[in-house]
Amino acid sequence: MKVVLLKDIPKVGKKYDIKDVSDGHGRNFLIRNKLAELATPHSLRMVEDMKGKITAQKNIEEAQVEAGLAKLSKAKITLKGKANEEGHLFAGIKAEELSDAIKDQTGLTVSFEHINLDKPVKMVGEHEVEVSMGSKKAKFKLTVEKE
Q1: How many alpha carbons fall within 13 Å on the CB side of residue 88?
Q2: Of residues 143, 145, 137, the one with CA closest to residue 72
Q3: CA 138, CA 94: separation in Å to the nearest integer?
Q4: Strand, coil or helix: 98
Q5: Across 34-44, average pLDDT
Q6: φ/ψ of residue 14, rounded to 5
């Protein structure tokens, strides 16, 4: 029996895949629990349309990510923190603070999970910080000044 999966199902397939399953499994589990529907010519056309829309949406999102990272790579983010005479900050600057500063200073929304910071920034001066979204990466200049 051919079915169109409506959700991701472990060990069977992903959403909108067309799979050949046993009649019992298809009727008694997949279709009954609305995890799949019978593959008819109409449902196959709908699946192709949905896959096209999903691909188009992914392309648009990738283009937006690339544009955002290109804008971010040209940006210079400036933060101020309390520091001693040698330039050591009392409180390190973490990815969460950087995310907020990027949004305030450039208007770009970058989640702190995408900021590659091994440890908090603890020195006054210029630092290069990397941001990665999927396979795309960009670096920007972070300037930390003494308050």
Answers
A1: 2
A2: 137
A3: 18
A4: helix
A5: 93
A6: -100, 170
Please check the confidence at residue 41 and state whether its pLDDT lies above 90.
yes
Residue 110 and residue 95 in contact, taking contact as beta carbons nearer than 8 Å = no
| Structure token digits, residue 44 | 């196959």
CA distance 42 to 64: 33
Q: Could you give the percent of the chain with pLDDT greater than 90?
A: 54
In the chain, what are the domains? 2-63 (3.40.5.10), 67-146 (3.10.430.100)
Residue pair 94/122 in contact (Cβ under 8 Å)? The answer is no
Write out pLDDT tens, residues 49-82: 999 999 999 999 888 888 888 888 888 999 998 9
47 in Cβ contact with 16 (< 8 Å): yes
